[in-house]
Protein backbone atom coordinates (compact mmCIF):
# COMPACT_ATOMS: atom_id res chain seq x y z
CA UNK A 1 0.00 0.00 0.00
CA UNK A 2 1.53 3.39 -1.00
CA UNK A 3 2.21 5.75 1.92
CA UNK A 4 1.62 8.85 -0.24
CA UNK A 5 -1.62 9.72 -2.02
CA UNK A 6 -0.35 12.64 -4.13
CA UNK A 7 3.28 13.34 -5.03
CA UNK A 8 5.20 15.91 -6.99
CA UNK A 9 8.15 14.41 -8.85
CA UNK A 10 10.93 16.89 -9.65
CA UNK A 11 13.40 15.87 -12.34
CA UNK A 12 16.35 17.81 -13.67
CA UNK A 13 16.60 18.51 -17.38
CA UNK A 14 20.18 17.19 -17.33
CA UNK A 15 18.94 13.77 -16.22
CA UNK A 16 17.11 13.42 -19.57
CA UNK A 17 20.40 13.70 -21.50
CA UNK A 18 21.55 10.21 -20.47
CA UNK A 19 25.07 9.80 -21.82
CA UNK A 20 24.62 12.61 -24.34
CA UNK A 21 26.13 16.04 -23.79
CA UNK A 22 22.97 17.83 -24.93
CA UNK A 23 19.29 17.26 -25.66
CA UNK A 24 17.10 14.24 -24.97
CA UNK A 25 17.89 10.54 -24.66
CA UNK A 26 14.66 8.68 -25.56
CA UNK A 27 15.75 5.58 -23.60
CA UNK A 28 16.02 7.63 -20.37
CA UNK A 29 12.63 9.30 -20.87
CA UNK A 30 11.10 5.91 -21.65
CA UNK A 31 12.59 4.45 -18.44
CA UNK A 32 11.31 7.36 -16.33
CA UNK A 33 7.86 7.08 -17.94
CA UNK A 34 7.77 3.37 -17.06
CA UNK A 35 8.71 4.17 -13.44
CA UNK A 36 5.94 6.79 -13.26
CA UNK A 37 3.41 4.37 -14.77
CA UNK A 38 4.28 1.83 -12.06
CA UNK A 39 3.25 4.20 -9.26
CA UNK A 40 0.18 5.48 -11.17
CA UNK A 41 -0.95 1.85 -11.39
CA UNK A 42 -0.68 1.69 -7.58
CA UNK A 43 -3.22 4.53 -7.35
CA UNK A 44 -0.76 7.36 -6.58
CA UNK A 45 -1.66 10.79 -8.00
CA UNK A 46 1.42 12.14 -9.79
CA UNK A 47 2.46 15.65 -10.84
CA UNK A 48 5.79 16.22 -12.59
CA UNK A 49 8.10 19.23 -12.94
CA UNK A 50 11.12 18.89 -15.23
CA UNK A 51 13.99 21.36 -15.57
CA UNK A 52 15.34 22.57 -18.90
CA UNK A 53 19.11 22.39 -18.40
CA UNK A 54 19.58 19.77 -21.13
CA UNK A 55 18.42 22.30 -23.75
CA UNK A 56 19.14 25.71 -22.30
CA UNK A 57 20.79 26.54 -19.04
CA UNK A 58 20.29 30.10 -17.76
CA UNK A 59 23.92 31.19 -17.88
CA UNK A 60 25.11 34.54 -16.69
CA UNK A 61 24.92 37.51 -19.02
CA UNK A 62 28.67 38.05 -19.19
CA UNK A 63 29.10 34.59 -20.77
CA UNK A 64 26.24 34.65 -23.26
CA UNK A 65 25.45 38.30 -23.92
CA UNK A 66 21.80 37.40 -23.25
CA UNK A 67 20.20 39.28 -20.38
CA UNK A 68 19.05 37.17 -17.44
CA UNK A 69 15.28 37.62 -17.82
CA UNK A 70 15.41 36.83 -21.54
CA UNK A 71 17.56 33.76 -20.89
CA UNK A 72 15.18 32.56 -18.16
CA UNK A 73 12.25 32.66 -20.60
CA UNK A 74 14.33 30.57 -23.01
CA UNK A 75 14.85 28.07 -20.19
CA UNK A 76 11.10 27.98 -19.51
CA UNK A 77 10.43 27.06 -23.15
CA UNK A 78 13.00 24.26 -22.81
CA UNK A 79 10.99 22.79 -19.91
CA UNK A 80 7.91 22.64 -22.13
CA UNK A 81 9.87 20.65 -24.75
CA UNK A 82 10.92 18.20 -22.01
CA UNK A 83 7.35 18.06 -20.72
CA UNK A 84 6.05 17.24 -24.21
CA UNK A 85 8.62 14.45 -24.54
CA UNK A 86 7.60 12.96 -21.19
CA UNK A 87 3.92 13.30 -22.11
CA UNK A 88 4.48 11.42 -25.38
CA UNK A 89 6.31 8.57 -23.63
CA UNK A 90 3.69 8.25 -20.89
CA UNK A 91 0.82 8.19 -23.38
CA UNK A 92 2.64 5.53 -25.38
CA UNK A 93 2.38 3.40 -22.21
CA UNK A 94 -1.34 4.11 -21.92
CA UNK A 95 -1.06 6.66 -19.10
CA UNK A 96 -3.46 9.62 -19.36
CA UNK A 97 -1.65 12.95 -19.04
CA UNK A 98 -2.13 16.69 -19.14
CA UNK A 99 0.62 19.21 -19.85
CA UNK A 100 -0.01 22.59 -18.24
CA UNK A 101 2.14 25.60 -19.06
CA UNK A 102 2.66 28.72 -16.95
CA UNK A 103 3.18 30.59 -20.26
CA UNK A 104 0.21 30.47 -22.62
CA UNK A 105 0.73 28.22 -25.66
CA UNK A 106 -2.68 26.76 -26.38
CA UNK A 107 -1.58 24.63 -29.34
CA UNK A 108 0.65 22.43 -27.17
CA UNK A 109 -0.47 22.78 -23.54
CA UNK A 110 -3.31 23.84 -21.29
CA UNK A 111 -2.76 27.05 -19.33
CA UNK A 112 -1.87 26.38 -15.69
CA UNK A 113 -5.09 26.53 -13.66
CA UNK A 114 -4.76 25.21 -10.12
CA UNK A 115 -8.25 23.81 -9.71
CA UNK A 116 -8.14 22.13 -13.10
CA UNK A 117 -4.77 20.56 -12.26
CA UNK A 118 -6.20 19.14 -9.02
CA UNK A 119 -9.22 17.76 -10.90
CA UNK A 120 -6.93 16.00 -13.39
CA UNK A 121 -4.99 14.46 -10.50
CA UNK A 122 -8.20 13.24 -8.89
CA UNK A 123 -9.01 11.53 -12.21
CA UNK A 124 -5.57 9.85 -12.06
CA UNK A 125 -4.09 11.76 -14.96
CA UNK A 126 -0.40 12.59 -14.66
CA UNK A 127 -0.10 16.38 -14.71
CA UNK A 128 3.16 17.78 -16.11
CA UNK A 129 3.82 21.40 -15.17
CA UNK A 130 5.85 23.27 -17.79
CA UNK A 131 7.42 26.74 -18.09
CA UNK A 132 8.46 27.01 -14.45
CA UNK A 133 6.50 29.62 -12.51
CA UNK A 134 6.08 31.72 -15.66
CA UNK A 135 8.42 34.33 -14.17
CA UNK A 136 12.14 34.97 -14.72
CA UNK A 137 14.54 34.78 -11.75
CA UNK A 138 12.86 31.64 -10.38
CA UNK A 139 14.27 28.14 -10.83
CA UNK A 140 12.33 24.99 -11.72
CA UNK A 141 13.05 23.83 -8.14
CA UNK A 142 11.02 26.81 -6.96
CA UNK A 143 8.33 25.97 -9.53
CA UNK A 144 8.24 22.41 -8.17
CA UNK A 145 7.89 23.61 -4.57
CA UNK A 146 5.22 26.16 -5.50
CA UNK A 147 3.14 23.65 -7.46
CA UNK A 148 3.50 21.07 -4.67
CA UNK A 149 2.09 23.58 -2.19
CA UNK A 150 -0.70 24.61 -4.57
CA UNK A 151 -1.90 21.06 -5.29
CA UNK A 152 -1.50 19.96 -1.64
CA UNK A 153 1.06 17.27 -2.48
CA UNK A 154 2.07 14.98 0.38
CA UNK A 155 5.74 15.09 -0.57
CA UNK A 156 8.26 16.33 -3.15
CA UNK A 157 10.27 13.50 -4.67
CA UNK A 158 13.50 14.93 -6.06
CA UNK A 159 14.95 12.42 -8.50
CA UNK A 160 18.70 12.89 -8.96
CA UNK A 161 21.83 10.97 -9.99
CA UNK A 162 22.88 10.37 -6.38
CA UNK A 163 21.08 8.28 -3.78
CA UNK A 164 20.45 11.04 -1.24
CA UNK A 165 22.00 14.04 0.51
CA UNK A 166 25.63 13.74 1.58
CA UNK A 167 27.94 15.75 3.83
CA UNK A 168 29.78 16.74 0.61
CA UNK A 169 29.46 16.00 -3.12
CA UNK A 170 29.94 12.18 -3.28
CA UNK A 171 31.04 12.46 -6.92
CA UNK A 172 33.99 14.61 -5.81
CA UNK A 173 34.63 13.56 -2.21
CA UNK A 174 34.88 9.79 -1.52
CA UNK A 175 34.74 10.38 2.27
CA UNK A 176 31.27 12.00 2.06
CA UNK A 177 28.63 10.27 4.20
CA UNK A 178 24.91 10.07 3.54
CA UNK A 179 22.11 11.44 5.72
CA UNK A 180 19.11 9.12 6.17
CA UNK A 181 16.99 11.94 7.63
CA UNK A 182 17.78 15.61 8.07
CA UNK A 183 15.80 18.69 9.12
CA UNK A 184 15.27 21.79 6.97
CA UNK A 185 17.19 23.79 9.59
CA UNK A 186 20.22 21.48 9.45
CA UNK A 187 20.28 21.69 5.64
CA UNK A 188 20.37 25.48 5.84
CA UNK A 189 22.97 25.56 8.64
CA UNK A 190 25.25 23.10 6.83
CA UNK A 191 24.64 24.89 3.50
CA UNK A 192 23.64 21.60 1.81
CA UNK A 193 22.31 22.74 -1.54
CA UNK A 194 19.29 20.45 -1.79
CA UNK A 195 17.34 23.11 -3.68
CA UNK A 196 17.77 26.83 -4.08
CA UNK A 197 16.83 28.93 -1.06
CA UNK A 198 13.47 30.15 -2.39
CA UNK A 199 12.32 26.60 -3.19
CA UNK A 200 13.59 25.26 0.10
CA UNK A 201 11.95 28.01 2.16
CA UNK A 202 8.59 27.35 0.47
CA UNK A 203 8.78 23.68 1.51
CA UNK A 204 9.90 24.54 5.03
CA UNK A 205 7.16 27.13 5.62
CA UNK A 206 4.45 24.82 4.27
CA UNK A 207 5.83 21.71 5.96
CA UNK A 208 6.19 19.67 2.77
CA UNK A 209 8.77 16.88 3.17
CA UNK A 210 11.36 16.35 0.43
CA UNK A 211 12.83 12.96 -0.44
CA UNK A 212 16.05 13.08 -2.47
CA UNK A 213 16.75 9.76 -4.20
CA UNK A 214 18.46 8.12 -7.17
CA UNK A 215 15.92 8.12 -10.00
CA UNK A 216 18.14 5.98 -12.24
CA UNK A 217 17.98 2.89 -10.04
CA UNK A 218 15.23 0.49 -11.14
CA UNK A 219 12.02 0.61 -9.09
CA UNK A 220 13.43 3.25 -6.70
CA UNK A 221 10.43 5.51 -7.32
CA UNK A 222 8.07 2.68 -6.43
CA UNK A 223 10.09 1.86 -3.30
CA UNK A 224 9.91 5.50 -2.17
CA UNK A 225 6.10 5.70 -2.49
CA UNK A 226 5.75 2.36 -0.72
CA UNK A 227 7.52 3.89 2.28
CA UNK A 228 10.84 2.04 2.02
CA UNK A 229 13.94 3.82 3.32
CA UNK A 230 15.33 5.13 0.05
CA UNK A 231 17.42 8.27 -0.33
CA UNK A 232 17.30 11.09 2.23
CA UNK A 233 14.19 12.52 3.87
CA UNK A 234 14.17 16.25 4.64
CA UNK A 235 11.44 17.24 7.08
Any chance you could write out the topology, listing elements then pairs?
Elements: E1 6-11, H1 26-41, E2 45-50, H2 61-64, H3 68-92, E3 97-101, E4 110-111, H4 114-122, E5 126-130, H5 140-150, E6 155-160, E7 165-166, E8 178-179, E9 181-182, H6 184-189, H7 197-205, E10 210-214, H8 220-225, E11 232-234
Parallel strand pairs: 1-2, 1-6, 2-5, 3-4, 3-5, 6-10, 9-11
Antiparallel strand pairs: 7-8, 10-11
Helix pairs in contact: 1-3, 5-7
Characterise the protein shown here.
The structure is a single chain. By secondary structure, the chain is of the alpha/beta class. Helix content is 37%, strand content 19%. It is built from 8 helices and 11 strands. The chain has helices at 26-41, 61-64, 68-92, 114-122, 140-150, 184-189, 197-205, 220-225; strands spanning 6-11, 45-50, 97-101, 110-111, 126-130, 155-160, 165-166, 178-179, 181-182, 210-214, 232-234. The strands form 2 sheets. The chain has a 9-stranded mixed beta sheet, with helices on both faces. The protein has a two-stranded antiparallel ribbon with strand order 7-8. 43% of the residues are buried.
Amino acid sequence: MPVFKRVLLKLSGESLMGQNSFGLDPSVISKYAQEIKTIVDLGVEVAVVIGGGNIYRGMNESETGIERAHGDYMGMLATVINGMAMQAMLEKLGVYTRLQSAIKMEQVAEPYIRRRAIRHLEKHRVVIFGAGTGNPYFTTDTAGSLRAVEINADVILKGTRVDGIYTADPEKDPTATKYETITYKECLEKNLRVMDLTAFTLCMENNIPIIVFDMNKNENLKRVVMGEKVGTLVK
